């Protein structure tokens, strides 16, 4: 089983890698992670220039987590992207249209000597069908993400709805595979950049499926996602009670206690700390 790093990602905002203005503005968007994009957002003639800009951005200010979506390894830019951003200190590399274990294993080899982790973007029916092999392909794998627009195109579907039919089935399968392997699950983007109600409903659906956070394509989506994925007041209060009781019990040499009628041990305490972290509170 692969082991996810201690990442907290409610919102992950895509940023075009060749746009200095957007690269600078994204650092203040409030996203838990930025995804510098070298793939879909960058024209072929600007790929090398965008790679240099992203490497510079990785060394600059920003949120705690900086990820990069590289070009696929079967393109002229993919291998160079991975080597460059790994050396520049990217926390994670997103492998687009990841539908074979080979892609993750090749990326792993290219990152030798770095601490950079991998995120597999599942964007084809083949990727969903081969999830067991994909999730076991590399110990660097930290998360799965879902790209429903490319999935819809690859599957020959008539629209890009993410809440029904084959896309909904794939969305659920990806979340389940991530949970089975102890990986983070990052939900698909919402294409509704001007319809907040529709975007909120889509984000809520993903949270209900078990996703840990959501991919965003516009800064305005970040606040919606952060609020939706933050724990509610009752959950926060329970976490505080767990930690207070645990601290008191530990002072008396106890390793297992009960809070609100439920057993509390070290894993429950770790979950309580993570709850407070997701709420932006000290644990």
Folded structure, characterized:
The chain folds into two domains: 219 residues, Alpha-Beta Barrel (TIM Barrel); 46 residues, no CATH class. The chain has an eight-stranded parallel β-barrel, surrounded by six helices. By secondary structure, the protein is of the alpha/beta class. The longest helix is centred in the C-terminal third of the chain and has 19 residues. The protein is built from twelve helices and ten strands.
Write the layout of secondary structure elements.
Blueprint: E1 11-16, H1 20-25, E2 33-37, H2 47-58, E3 65-69, H3 78-87, E4 92-95, H4 101-110, E5 117-122, H5 125-129, H6 131-135, E6 141-146, H7 148-154, H8 165-181, E7 184-187, H9 196-208, E8 213-216, H10 219-229, H11 233-251, E9 257-259, E10 262-264, H12 266-278
Parallel strand pairs: 1-2, 1-8, 2-3, 3-4, 4-5, 5-6, 6-7, 7-8
Antiparallel strand pairs: 9-10
> What is the SS-derived class?
alpha/beta
What is the fourth-level CATH superfamily of the largest domain?
Phosphoenolpyruvate-binding domains
Oligomer: single chain
Summarize the biggest pleated sheet: 8 strands, parallel, barrel
Brief write-up:
The chain has helices at 20-25, 47-58, 78-87, 101-110, 125-129, 131-135, 148-154, 165-181, 196-208, 219-229, 233-251, 266-278; strands spanning 11-16, 33-37, 65-69, 92-95, 117-122, 141-146, 184-187, 213-216, 257-259, 262-264.
Comma- or semicolon-separated keywords:
283 residues; alpha/beta; TIM Barrel; eight-stranded parallel barrel; two-stranded antiparallel sheet; 12 helices
């Amino acid at each position: 089983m692969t082991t996810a790093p201690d990442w907290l990602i409610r919102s992950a905002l895509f940023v075009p890698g060749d746009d200095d203005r957007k690269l600078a503005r994204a650092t203040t968007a409030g996203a838990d992670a930025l995804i510098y994009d070298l793939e879909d957002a960058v024209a072929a003639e600007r790929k090398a220039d965008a790679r240099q800009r992203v490497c510079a951005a990785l060394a600059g200010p920003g949120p705690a987590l900086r990820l990069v979506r590289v070009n696929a390894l079967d393109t002229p830019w993919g291998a160079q992207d991975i080597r460059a951003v790994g050396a520049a200190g990217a926390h994670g590399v997103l492998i687009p249209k990841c539908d074979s274990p080979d892609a993750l294993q090749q990326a792993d080899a290219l990152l030798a000597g770095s601490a950079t982790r991998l995120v597999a973007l599942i964007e084809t029916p083949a990727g969903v069908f081969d999830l067991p092999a994909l999730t076991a392909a590399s110990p660097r794998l930290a998360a799965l993400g879902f790209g429903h627009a490319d999935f819809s195109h690859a599957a020959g579907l008539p629209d890009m709805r993410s809440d029904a039919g084959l896309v909904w089935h794939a969305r659920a399968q990806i979340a389940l595979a991530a949970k089975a392997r102890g990986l983070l699950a990052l939900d698909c983007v919402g294409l509704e950049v001007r319809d907040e109600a529709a975007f909120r409903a889509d984000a809520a659906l993903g949270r209900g499926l078990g996703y840990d956070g959501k991919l965003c394509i516009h800064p305005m989506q970040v606040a919606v996602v952060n609020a939706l994925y933050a724990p509610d007041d009752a959950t926060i209060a329970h976490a505080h009670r767990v930690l207070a009781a645990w601290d008191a019990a530990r002072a008396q040499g106890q390793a297992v206690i009960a809070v609100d009628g439920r057993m509390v041990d070290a894993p429950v305490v770790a979950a309580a700390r993570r709850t407070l972290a997701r709420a932006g509170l000290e644990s």
